[in-house]
Every structure is written in structure tokens, then in C-alpha cells.
Write a structure and sequence with these properties.
The complex is a heterodimer of chains A (about 180) and B (about 120).
Chain A lengths: L2 H13 L2 E6 L4 H17 L4 H27 L10 E7 L2 E11 L3 H12 L3 H13 L12 H8 L5 E6 L4 E9 L1
Antiparallel strand pairs in A: 1-2, 2-3, 3-5, 4-5
Helix pairs in contact in A: 2-3, 3-6, 5-6
Chain B lengths: L3 E3 L7 E5 L4 E8 L4 H15 L6 E11 L1 H19 L3 E8 L4 H12 L5 E5 L1
Parallel strand pairs in B: 3-4, 4-5, 5-6
Antiparallel strand pairs in B: 1-2, 2-3
The chains are: A alpha+beta (about 180), B alpha/beta (about 120).
InterPro entries (chain A): DUF6272 (IPR046239)
Protein name (chain A): FIST domain-containing protein
Organism (chain A): Azospirillum melinis
Chain lengths: ~180, ~120
């Protein structure tokens, strides 16, 4: 990357009061190592343990969602363009914001936005009820997750989940998700 | 029946099940690459064991963090034990948590809500 492009990228990232930004192939070891770095950093900030665990757990759910989705498309023989996932942890005023972005297939967009709209409309009690309902469902054969990640993030968030879905081409949308803690 | 022991890693917990003593321990953090693969031997072992368990079975859980797919696995483990309890076996759970970590307490309480077996939550 050219020097001025790097400068612009760094400047953009600095404005977000960034703790960590990763874009590239999400392997389990990358998720784990970055997670450790985030926790070490937050422990040095001397914030409450429960706040550290909220940031860490939202980060893990987002990163694992990106990785699992990518792996599931690969398993179907429809690999997603390489390295299109990103996770960012930043600080706004006195709270943390964990965001992720990744390409999703156009066919998955209606289901994803319906789920997010539903979660955005629920209060804490409603979110807990949806969480309990989902957690009692039998696991789907071959599924890598339990379908609890988004609900769990919504429960930890202090504001409704923010998201966007932007068409990239005929096949893919870029899905971004922002969780305010 | 053989004991089951899986050593802890940085993202998966220690599993230490002693069938004769009826002592089952799960300790550490749980966010493995694939939770269902990780817990499959645990489910298989328990399914066998709960047919003829020790006179009293205690599950000691000391999990400071679980990702959501591990939470689902732990719900399934607790449901298996709860089933044995409902059939008259003596089965109980002791959930240990670090008293600095409110989230660990919230999580333990939510697990306890869904089962009828004796469930103690102990701060350390």
C-alpha cells in the first residue's frame, strides 16, 4: 500500500479511538490471539471485569459468525471472495463499540434483516424470551452455531443493534453490524 | 466404565469425569473452534454413564466464559443430568464463579432457571 493511502487509513482508524482492527482471513487462531490482546489491553485500562467480558464476548461472537459463515459457503462450494471480513473494536466517549463487516449472499439478506429488525424491536425481557426459546431448540444438523449469537449481542448491547446491508454486486451484500456496549 | 479426561487449552475447558466417584468437573473457558465437535465426546460419555451412574453424581462447573455455541452445549449437558434427576437419580450441580465477574453470576442463574435438579451457585 502506498504511503499516503496508509496515512489516510491510519487517520481514519485513529478517529474511531480504535483498540483493534482486523481484516483478513479469520482463522480460529487469529480470533483467539486478537481476543487475548483485547483482554490484556482492557485489563490494563482497569475497567470492570464484567465490562471486559462484554467486549470480549461480543468480539468472539462477531468474529466466529464471520468465520462460520465463510466456512459454510465454502462447504457449499460457493466460496466468498477472500479476506472480505473485518472486525473493529473502538471507544466512543466512555463506552466500547464492537463492529464487524462481511460479505453475505443476496439470498440471505431478507432473513438476516428480518431477524435484526425483530431484535431491534424487543426490550430486555423480550430478548431474554427469544434467547430462551432459541436455546431450547434442537441443534440443526451440520450447523456450526446455535443461532444465539445475534440475540446474545442484542442482550449485552446498551442500544438496539445497528446494521446495514449494502449491495456490492448481483451475488453479494456487505453486511455491517455495530454493537454499542 | 472409563473415566473421561480432556486437558484444558486456552479456548476449551478441562473435562475430568470420574465415573466411580460420581464427580464430573468442567473448568476453564469455552470458545473452541467448533463447540459441537468439542462436546461430542462429553455427550456420548454422559449418555452411557447416566444409564448406571454412581449413587450420587455431582457436576462441578467452573466456567468463567462461554461463547453462545458452548452455552448451547452446556444446556444440553444440564438437560441430560436433569433427565436423570427426574428419573430418581441423585444428581446435583455446583456452579463456581469469580465474585468479581457479575456476568458469570448472571449466566449461572440463567442456567439454573431451566433445570429442576439441585443447583448451587458458589462465589469464590
Amino acid at each position: 500500500m502506498k504511503g499516503n493511502e496508509l496515512f489516510n487509513l491510519q487517520e481514519l482508524l485513529s478517529r474511531q479511538k480504535l483498540l483493534i482492527c482486523f481484516s483478513g482471513p479469520f482463522s480460529h487462531s487469529v480470533i483467539e490471539e486478537l481476543g487475548k490482546a483485547v483482554r490484556n489491553h482492557l485489563e490494563n485500562e482497569r475497567i470492570e471485569k464484567s465490562a471486559i467480558m462484554d467486549v470480549f464476548s461480543v468480539y468472539v461472537e462477531q468474529a466466529q459468525n464471520v468465520r462460520n459463515y465463510t466456512a459454510s459457503r465454502e462447504a457449499l462450494g460457493r466460496p466468498i471472495p477472500a479476506n472480505s471480513g473485518i472486525v473493529v473494536i473502538g471507544k466512543e466517549d466512555d463506552h466500547y463499540v464492537v463492529s464487524s463487516g462481511n460479505l453475505v449472499e443476496a439470498d440471505d439478506v431478507p432473513g438476516l434483516s428480518a431477524m435484526l429488525e425483530k431484535l431491534r424491536g424487543l426490550d430486555k425481557a423480550g430478548l431474554k424470551a427469544v434467547y430462551k426459546e432459541q436455546s431450547r431448540k434442537p441443534r440443526e444438523a451440520g450447523a456450526s452455531g446455535a443461532g444465539l449469537g445475534l440475540i446474545d449481542m442484542a442482550r449485552k448491547a446498551t442500544r438496539p443493534l445497528e446494521y446495514s446491508l449494502r449491495a456490492v454486486d448481483d451475488t453479494y451484500f456487505f453486511f455491517s453490524l455495530e454493537v454499542q456496549l | 466404565m472409563d473415566s473421561l479426561r480432556i486437558e484444558a487449552t486456552s479456548c476449551s475447558p478441562l473435562i475430568d469425569f470420574d465415573p466411580a466417584a460420581g464427580l464430573l468437573r468442567i473448568e476453564g473457558e469455552s470458545y473452541p473452534e467448533n463447540s459441537f465437535d468439542f462436546y461430542a465426546p462429553v455427550f456420548n460419555w454422559l449418555e452411557d454413564y447416566l444409564k448406571t451412574p454412581a449413587p450420587a453424581v455431582v457436576l462441578d462447573i467452573g466456567l468463567s466464559y462461554l461463547n453462545t455455541s458452548s452455552i448451547k452445549c452446556m444446556i444440553d449437558v444440564l438437560e441430560m443430568l436433569d433427565g436423570a434427576h427426574q428419573q430418581g437419580q441423585t444428581v446435583s450441580v455446583r456452579w463456581h464463579y469469580d465474585s468479581d465477574n457479575d456476568r458469570a453470576l448472571d449466566m449461572a442463574e440463567e442456567f439454573a432457571e431451566d433445570v429442576s435438579l439441585p443447583f448451587e451457585i458458589l462465589a469464590h
